Amino acid sequence: MAFKHKSVLLDETIEGLNIKPDGIYVDGTLGGGGHAYEVCRRLNNKGSFIGIDQDAAAIEAAGTRLSDFGERVTIIRSNYCDMKPRLHEIGIDKVDGITVDLGVSSYQLDTAERGFSYRVDAPLDMRMDQRNPKTAADIVNEYSEMELYRMIRDYGEDRFAKNIAKHIVRARAKKPIETTGELCE
Length: 185
Hints:
The protein has 9 helices and 4 strands; from the N terminus they run H-E-H-E-H-E-H-E-H-H-H-H-H. By secondary structure, the chain is α/β, with parallel strands linked by helices.
């Protein structure tokens, strides 16, 4: 499946960045490179763009999309949480603008084997970065009921977190939960 993603609030983001042609800009969630392309179009040969993403498919797609901008573009495979040290590694201490599009991309949701969606019964994966050895199946099957409860409550903001965690633990006692369909059930 080709990496396709419609950039959210593209015009508003570009306008808000107030791009200087010779500036340094960072996209902490590079994705398919939609925001990046529009930033790079506005840079001159002295400007530079750094794209950060942890998803290999996103990096490949963005690399292709941004290839015409040559040396102005640097792509780093990392998490945006590590932006500052990654920028320091390439000699950048100050930038003119940063954008971060938080969330899951449509590509990730539409690629069944990534295990992000419940639309198709697929292996329970949900990793943004495939280099991470821990999958959602590992978490669902290994975390304690209290850890699951806290995770569902804090990150999922689900008011039924305690009940969901209890049912997960009960179901996995019979058989490990291995697919998105089993987790849904």
